[in-house]
Amino acid sequence: MTLRILVVGAGVSGLAAARGLRVAGFRPDVVEAMPPDTVPKAGIFLPGNATRALRRLGLDAPLRPLGDLIFRQVFQDARGRNLFEVDVAALWAGVGESRAMSRADLQQVLLTAVGGEVRYDTRVTGLAVENGGAKVDFSDGSVAEYDLVIGADGRRSTVRTAAGLGGPATPTGQIAYRSVVSGGPPLSEWTALLGRRSGFAIVPMGGRRLYCYADETAPGAPYPENPKERMRELFGSFGGPVPAVLEAVETVSVARTDEVVLERWSTGPVLLVGDAAHATAPTLAQGAAMAVEDAVVLAEVLRESPDDIQAALTTYEQRRRPRCRHVRDRTRDRDRTRDVPPALRDPMLRRRGQRIFTEHYRELVAPL
């Protein structure tokens, strides 16, 4: 049976899904609402389970020369004094290396892997389930029918809404600031400083560039009009490498973080994957990892049951839900820990931080 499959979204989730389907012998259509010259400007940290999943998609070789390998994660207090360290090389031994790189580079590797066959500037404007299939209307006026529609269009998924699988994502109360810095201080390790309901992570990503991710827990706070100034205001008193990084920051993007929790990820021939199905705050750096793992498992179940899509989607949810729930729960745990007053949190992390944070990833070391 030749399945007619549509992937909606050409970010990490959508391109990974399309790559997985191609490896499994399918030829999906891929559409993306944004224009082709939209280039992600942030960095990305890929833990060992993410690189394992990318290897399963046959992408180990093109990723190998990109970015920097990360061997340790160092956690410090706001003054730059060590709280604890995690040996991530040991944590992910036998699974995959941890790598920090440009998100644009990862996007290009995935795009090349699907042959660049993406219809850009194309939105889904209508979705109807008919006779066991899906009829899809596109913004260019075309209409097509598919045996399976995969919504990989992120936290603000239009497919999720059109299919009646859920409404808007739920804000977590955090505001996130991202920047890529060139010419900042020399840094060889993933380093995070924890303040009062705030954190500042700095990750070397190759080419003397640093990826900076900072956030504050501020439910109901107004959106900052000047993210760069707000970042300086929040973290100007921090120690360690933060002052030198702030001095080198040129542009800052800002966004509220949110999460998506759904009772089901599919209805009929429509399935949600990646952030469209199970977004979390990025605290554990598992967004891309979960999306690529989704792609691997989806390809496997469809290859095994190409003549029974409903059975395949049921199996897919049964395999993926426990793992994604674990990430969501541990993300919430870590955010709650971060938001404990420093006078209580910091002594506790000096004693137990390594064990606590290592345990957050323990289940993700296990095979998919």
Mean pLDDT, to the nearest integer, reads: 96
Uncertain regions: pLDDT < 50 for 5+ in a row?
none
Radius of gyration: 21 Å
Give the strand content. 25-35%
Q: Give the name of the CATH superfamily of the domain at 5-70 and 98-169 and 259-338.
A: FAD/NAD(P)-binding domain
Query: What is the H-and-E element order?
Result: EHEEHHEEEHEHEEEEHEEEEHHEEEHHHH
Number of helices: 12
Counting DSSP E segments of at least 2 residues, the number of strands comes to: 18
Proportion of helical residues = 25-40%
- How do the strands of the widest beta sheet line up side by side? 6-5-13-14-15-12-16
**Protein structure class:** alpha+beta
Shape field: globular
CATH topology of the domain at 5-70 and 98-169 and 259-338: FAD/NAD(P)-binding domain
Described by strand count, sense and barrel closure, the largest sheet is: 7 strands, mixed
Distance between the termini: 26 Å
Using the 3D structure, state the CATH architecture of the domain at 5-70 and 98-169 and 259-338: 3-Layer(bba) Sandwich
CATH class of the domain at 5-70 and 98-169 and 259-338, anyone?
A: Alpha Beta
